[in-house]
Request: fold
Amino acid sequence: MKEALYYSKLENQQVQCHLCPHECRIADQKTGICNVRQNKEGVLYSLVYERAIATHIDPIEKKPLFHVYPASHSLSIATAGCNFRCMFCQNCDISQVKYSDTITGERIQAKDIVRAAHDNQCRTIAFTYTEPTIFFEYALDIAKEAAEKQIKCVFISNGFINPEPMKQLAPFLAGANIDLKGWDESFYRKIIGGRLEPVLNTLKLLKQLGVWLEVTTLIVPGYADSEQTLQSIAQFIKTELGPETPWHISRFHPQYKMTDRDATPTSVIKKAVEMGSREGLRYVYSGNIPGDDGEHTHCYSCGAMLLKRYGFRIIENNVRNGKCSECGAEIDGVFA
Reply:
């Protein structure tokens, strides 16, 4: 265990966690909503510090980050736990944990994570799979160690984090992909277990801090698939984050507690991609449809094929020094 950052002590050995907008008030021996931050006699501890539940080497495109060192690899790491309760969670076996005296995970020190990334020629370290906010202390120590080896990190998150911890981690990030799961507050409260406004604030903050940002929206049928919802998200991205911000529109598949509906029709995904382009976004992608034309990156200026993909694999790369090889336009992102 490690004493947590971002909390305050209250009377009667209670504490209040300030890591995320839940702002949990936690009695002695209890945990917050994430189930991995516990109050022990008036001191808040992270139960998942240096307890990795998943470590893999992934293509950066899997995050998905399409504009951060394309075709590179990222050492991906997660611990158990999450501060959301998404009814359609694809990693529910490791994110939706119950509190117990023993938290599952392999003990791996921050320096060993960085060494593994370096030895395997990974360009980045990704905090991903579950919600990296809840293992903030671990992620921060990894990021500091990585900086000494000239390795950047990426943050794959639901965006439900308070501004101060986000500001502390931001200097170590090459990029972030934030889930904007919908545009309806009741959807966020009932289906997600959170709130929309703090997520929007995180997106705007990352942009202000100069962190390269990409946005993902999972199109859940009946909840996040209306034309009004998709148009509102597209307009928010363009107005508040900038037209250069990539938008990944992903296909839902039934899982966890949401098996009462079919996968999103591919026609809905393609319609959303077209809508995003019409709204003026430069890069709009279809997700979870391998082989779809919406996987590719085209030049926003001349329309040339820049990055041709199949799933998470790049099969053609026509970006040269961050520019379109045809017309020379600067392509937005973080390139070698």
